[in-house]
């Protein structure tokens, strides 16, 4: 017991932390809070949800109208997913800017967390069984049919039939429930890998001297971050609870009526825009997958004296362009597939991937 407390003490309280880390380093702990919110609210929602195509939509109405504070649980869980992705994108952006990707084990486990989180969010979006849930599931699962030889068989196997039906909803619910617990295990490994060598810092220097204990200096900083996050979160939940919801999803799923504009949730729009920009189906699927896993190339292509981009003006400009491209791709993903949005999407896709090609070239010149 004493040994366990000693480990916990070295892990959370007396952990040597660089004295100069800024509020950008708060995102990791905020993401931990987001994960807990999603787990707790999700468990309570699962007690009243029915994974059946004839009852799923009505069970959501039952949760909202009849269950005590069910409306609040549903809103917290739905908007909590958006908060999770919002802070995850900031956390990843901070890692790219300050060179945190050079801690390879931390970066690989973080990328795996992102992929599992995206899979969990997609599965969860299907569960309300509204119009956009059904058609989103149909479109995204159909992408697997682009895989040569195995594609069509794989899609039929995932569906459990010849279309998105009751077996699909059942297995999506099962995986949506299981994956967050797998995510918790990977998050633990992520933290263990991080604490092997400690956090990076804004200067990007191997700072082994100027370190202070995590508590009380950074626990106070984290608590302040939690307070700001919760204030923002509850403002959205109470003032505009359906800000991120698609109006189509308030209608029950109807396989006979296709929505005029099928689109995923806002946090998938950048990848969806890249998918749409490639005329070839298989090429689009490959580009979609690459848009996320390409960040794994960063540790292999960077060998600068300073980790942080703040020491290199051209790298700073390039990073700002990358952020703007990401935001514009998110905007394009919500637009209909017509001119001029097709051309703008293709141009932004090229710029997005160019960042990962130009970055290693700049590293060679800045040595």
Automatic annotation (TrEMBL):
A ubiquinone binds at residue 195. Residues 204-367 form the Cytochrome b/b6 C-terminal region profile domain. Binds 2 heme groups non-covalently. The chain crosses the membrane at residues 23-50, 71-91, 106-127, 139-160, 172-193, 214-236, 282-304, 316-334, 340-362. Pfam families: Cytochrom_B_C (PF00032), Cytochrome_B (PF00033). It comes from the Eukaryota. InterPro entries: Cyt_b/b6_C, Cyt_b/b6_C_sf, Cyt_b/b6_N, Cytb/b6-like_sf, Cytochrome_b, Cytochrome_b_C_euk/bac, Cytochrome_b_N_euk/bac, Di-haem_cyt_TM. One of its GO terms (molecular function) is oxidoreductase activity. Its cofactor is heme; heme b. One of its GO terms (biological process) is mitochondrial electron transport, ubiquinol to cytochrome c. Heme b b562 binds at residues 77, 176. It is found in: Mitochondrion inner membrane. Keywords: Electron transport, Heme, Iron, Membrane, Metal-binding, Mitochondrion, Mitochondrion inner membrane, Respiratory chain, Transmembrane, Transmembrane helix, Transport, Ubiquinone. It is a multi-pass membrane protein. Heme b b566 binds at residues 91, 190. Residues 1-203 form the Cytochrome b/b6 N-terminal region profile domain. The main subunits of complex b-c1 are: cytochrome b, cytochrome c1 and the Rieske protein. Belongs to the cytochrome b family. Component of the ubiquinol-cytochrome c reductase complex (complex III or cytochrome b-c1 complex) that is part of the mitochondrial respiratory chain. The b-c1 complex mediates electron transfer from ubiquinol to cytochrome c. Contributes to the generation of a proton gradient across the mitochondrial membrane that is then used for ATP synthesis. This is Cytochrome b. The lineage of its organism: Eukaryota, Metazoa, Ecdysozoa, Arthropoda, Hexapoda.
């Amino acid at each position: 017991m004493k040994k366990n407390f000693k480990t916990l003490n070295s892990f959370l309280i007396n952990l040597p932390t660089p004295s100069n880390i800024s509020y950008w380093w708060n995102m990791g702990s905020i993401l931990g809070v987001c994960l807990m919110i999603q787990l707790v609210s999700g468990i309570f929602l699962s007690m009243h949800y029915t994974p059946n195509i004839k009852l799923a939509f009505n069970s959501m109405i039952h949760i909202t109208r009849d269950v005590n504070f069910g409306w609040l649980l549903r809103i917290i869980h739905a908007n909590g997913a958006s908060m999770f992705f919002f802070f995850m994108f900031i956390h990843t952006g901070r890692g790219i800017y300050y060179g945190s990707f050079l801690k390879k084990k931390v970066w690989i486990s973080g990328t795996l967390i992102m992929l599992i989180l995206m899979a969990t969010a997609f599965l969860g979006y299907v569960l309300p069984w509204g119009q956009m849930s059904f058609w989103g599931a149909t479109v995204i699962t159909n992408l697997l049919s682009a895989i040569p030889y195995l594609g069509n068989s794989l899609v039929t196997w995932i569906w459990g039939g010849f279309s998105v039906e009751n077996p699909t909803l059942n297995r999506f619910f099962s995986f949506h429930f299981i994956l967050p617990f797998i995510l918790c295990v990977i998050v633990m490994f992520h933290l263990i890998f991080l604490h092997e060598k400690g956090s990076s810092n804004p200067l990007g220097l191997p700072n082994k001297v100027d370190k202070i204990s995590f508590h009380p200096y950074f626990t106070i900083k984290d608590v302040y971050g939690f307070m700001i996050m919760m204030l923002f979160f509850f403002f959205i939940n109470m003032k505009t609870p359906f800000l991120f919801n698609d109006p189509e999803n308030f209608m029950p799923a109807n396989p006979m009526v296709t929505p005029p504009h099928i689109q995923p949730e806002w946090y998938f729009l950048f990848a969806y825009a890249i998918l749409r920009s490639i005329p070839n189906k298989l090429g689009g699927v490959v580009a979609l997958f690459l848009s996320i896993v390409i960040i794994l190339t960063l540790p292999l292509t960077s060998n600068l004296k300073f980790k942080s981009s703040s020491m290199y003006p051209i790298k700073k400009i390039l990073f700002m362009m990358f952020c703007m491209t990401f935001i514009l791709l998110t905007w394009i993903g919500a637009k209909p597939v017509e001119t001029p949005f097709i051309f703008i999407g293709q141009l932004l896709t090229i710029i997005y991937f160019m960042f990962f090609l130009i970055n290693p070239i700049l590293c060679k010149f800045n040595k």
